Amino acid sequence: xxxxxxxxxxxxxxxxxxxxxxxxxxxxxxxxxxxxxxxxxxxxxxxxxxxxxxxxxxxxxxxxxxxxxxxxxxxxxxxxxxxxxxxxxxxxxxxxxxxxxxxxxxxxxxxxxxxxxxxxxxxxxxxxxxxxxxxxxxxxxxxxxxxxxxxxxxxxxxxxxxxxxxxxxxxxxxxxxxxxxxxxxxxxxxxxxxxxxxxxxxxxxxxxxxxxxxxxxxxxxxxxxxxxxxxxxxxxxxxxxxxxxxxxxxxxxxxxxxxxxxxxxxxxxxxxxxxxxxxxxxxxxxxxxxxxxxxxxxxxxxxxxxxxxxxxxxxxxxxxxxxxxxxxxxxxxxxxxxxxxxxxxxxxxxxxxxxxxxxxxxxxxxxxxxxxxxxxxxxxxxxxxxxxxxxxxxxxxxxxxxxxxxxxxxxxxxxxxxxxxxxxxxxxxxxxxxxxxxxxxxxxxxxxxxxxxxxxxxxxxxxxxxxxxxxxxxxxxxxxxxxxxxxxxxxxxxxxxxxxxxxxxxxxxxxxxxxxxxxxxxxxxxxxxxxxxxxxxxxxxxxxxxxxxxxxxxxxxxxxxxxxxxxxxxxxxxxxxxxxxxxxxxxxxxxxxxxxxxxxxxxxxxxxxxxxxxxxxxxxxxxxxxxxxxxxxxxxxxxxxxxxxxxxxxxxxxxxxxxxxxxxxxxxxxxxxxxxxxxxxxxxxxxxxxxxxxxxxxxxxxxxxxxxxxxxxxxxxxxxxxxxxxxxxxxxxxxxxxxxxxxxxxxxxxxxxxxxxxxxxxxxxxxxxxxxxxxxxxxxxxxxxxxxxxxxxxxxxxxxxxxxxxxxxxxxxxxxxxxxxxxxxxxxxxxxxxxxxxxxxxxxxxxxxxxxxxxxxxxxxxxxxxxxxxxxxxxxxxxxxxxxxxxxxxxxxxxxxxxxxxxxxxx
Length: 907
Known about the structure:
5-stranded mixed sheet; Topoisomerase II, domain 5; single chain; 23 helices; Neuraminidase; Gyrase A, domain 2; alpha+beta
C-alpha cells in the first residue's frame, strides 16, 4: 500500500497537477497545444470543433476523461482567466459570472498566435520527447517556450500533499525583466536581485484588472514563493438623480464570480452589515464590468465602501503559492528563480536549435556538392545510368567511379570550409546520399544554369553555417539572439498593465515590512534620483583621488546628496515653487555606479518643471509642530513658514513658494528646518556670507508670498547655500573676540583667557564650525563665532578668500571635526573623508586642499555624514586610497598646518 500510494502521489505531482517551470504548462495543457498543432488547427486556418481536439488529445496522449480535457481547453480561451489566452475559441466558452462553457460539440477552437510562440522550433530537436501512454507515438516533455509562460498566465493545481497557485503577470513587464537580467549578464555585472526585479515587475497583473493593496505580500511571494496578495475592486462614485449617488464597481478581483459578488453584496445589505444601499444592478456588457450600487440620500460613499471591502468579496486575497516542477522535482520558487530557470532553458533551446540547423545545413551542402559533380560530368553520368541494367547497378557504378576535381574545385573548397576538412587527393568519390540525390535529380536541373544555382545555394549555406558556428562558440552572441527573440515577443504580445498598484489597506503601509537602514540619496542636475546604502562607501583621507560615485551622462552632474533613513519623509521643491512628498524607501535603489531614475517618473511634474531642492524631514511627526521651514532664493530672499503648512501634501503636490514678480531668473537654493531661536547663514558663490536671527524673518501664513530680503548681493553674485545655526551664545562682540583670541583650536593661544574658565568652557561646548567647500577642491573649517550676527538684508562679510584660485563656493554649512564629508565632482567621482585632520582656521583664510580634482574637473556637491567609521589605514594604503596629504603648495601636512595658522593669524 505504501509503495503504491507513493507511486500514485509522484505521478499526480509530476505528471498531472503541477506546471513545469520552463514552459509553465501542466501535461494536459501541453498535450492540448501539441495535438492542436499536430492536427493543423493553427492560426490562419478554419476553426475546428472542440470535440475533435479533445478526441485527439484523449486518444493519443491523455487517457483521462473528456470533460477534464475540455474544461482545460475552455480555460485556455478565457481572457478573464488567462493573461494571454493560448486558444482562439469561437462560441460560448463561459463567462466571469461564472457561467459554464457550452458543450464541446457546439464550440470551435484553434491555436492562438501566443501559443505558436510556445511551439516554435519544436521540430528542430530543441526539447526531448517521450513515448505516450501506449508507446504508439512520441510527445514533447516540454515546449520550447519563447516567453516565461509560468509567470504570464500563472497556474493552479492540487497535487498530493501540495498545491500550487501562481498569479498571472503582465507579459511586457516579465519580458522586460528577462531583458534586464540578460543585459546584466552581457555587461558582466552581478546578478539582479529580487528587489531590483520588483522595480520592473511590481506585482501580478490580473486579467480582471482590479487593484492590489500594498507590496509587502508581493515582496514575500517573490522572495520566498508564498504570500497573500490583497485584491480590491476598482470603483467610481457617480452622481444620480435627486442628489443621490451611486458606487460603480468597474472591475472585480481575480477568480471572484461576478454574480456571486452581487449576491453577497445584496445579502450583506439585507443583513444591515452594509448600510445605506438602496439598490444593486449588474449593468456589465461586452465593454466591461459595471456593478451599480445605488445609495440612499443620507449615505456616505466612503463609509459604504469601507463596509463593502470588509464584508464582501469585493476585497479578497489571492494566496500565492509558487510551486512548480524544476529538474523533475517540485520546488517553491521566487520571482528570480523562475526567470533564471527560463533563461537557462532558452539558452539550452537555442543551443540545440543551432546544432540542428548546423547539421541540416552541412547535410544539404554535402548533397549539393554531389549534384555539382553530376552536372559538371553530365555526359559521363548519363552514360553510366543508361548503360546500367538496373537502378542498383547504376548506384554501384556511380559509387565506384572516381571523379576528377577539375572545374568543381571551387565548390569542393567551399564545402571543405563548411565541413572543416581538406581533400587529400585529386579525385572525388560520391557518397550514398549524393548518389541517391543524383538518381532523383530532375532533367531540367542538368544544365549549366542548374550548376550556378547550386553554387549560389552553397554560398548561402556557408554564410548560415558560419553564423551558427559563431553563436555556438560565443555565449554573449547566443544571449543576444535570445534577447532579440524576447524583444520580438514583447513587440507582438505586450499590453498595458490592467491591475493597479495601491498602498496597503487598514493602515498597514509597506514601510512596516522594511528594515530601517541609513541611505545616501543622490540627485543629479538632469533630475535623476536614487538611494544607496551608506555602508557601500568607505572612508578615505582628505586629498584622496576618490572613487566612481555615479554613472551619469556626459552633460549631467550630481547636484545634491544627503544621508537619511529609509523611513524618512522627504519634501521635493520644484523650480516653479511647488512641493511634493515621498518616503525615502519609495525612491529607486541603486549601487554607487548606477544613475537612478528620473524624478519625472516618480512625481507628477508638469512640462518644464524640475525638482530644485530636496528636504528630508524628521521621521517622528510629533516633532513637526516645533519646527519652521525657512526658504532661501538665489536672489537673496528668505521666507519662514510653520511646518504645519506642509503636513498634508497631496499626491499631485501643492504651491510652496512664489517668486517676486514671477522672476524666471530666481530659484529656490535651499529649504531648511528652523528651530526656535536658531540663526540663518546665507553664503554666496563669490565668498560672502551673512548671519542673522531666524526670528528676524516674520512667520508667513501664506504659501504664495515672496518673502523678504535676506541679503543684498553684488553684481553677478548669487546665494548658493542656506544653513541653520543655533544661538550665538555670547553676550556681546567683546566676549566673542575674547573667546576667539583664546580658542582651544588655535595652534598657539594664551595660557589664561580673560574671561572665567567656566564661561570659557560654556562657550566652547556651544561652539559650531562652518565648513566651506569650493569648486576646485579647496575648503576650510572656521568657527561660527567668527560669523557675527547682524540684521538681515546686509551685504555680509568674507566667508573664504582667494576665490580666483579656489573657484566659486559650492557649499557652506555647519560641521565638526567628528563629521565625515562626502564630495562629488562633475565627472561623477566621489570621496568620503573624515574631518578630524582638518584644522580650524580663520574665516577669511584661503583654505586647504580637500579633494585632488583632475584638470577641468569641479566639485559640484558636498554633504556631511553624521556617523564616523574608522577604516583600517593599512588596507587603505594597500589599495592606494591614502595619497600623500599635501596643501595647495605641495608641502607636507605639518607645513599645511603652519600655513593655515598663518592665514588665520593674518585674517
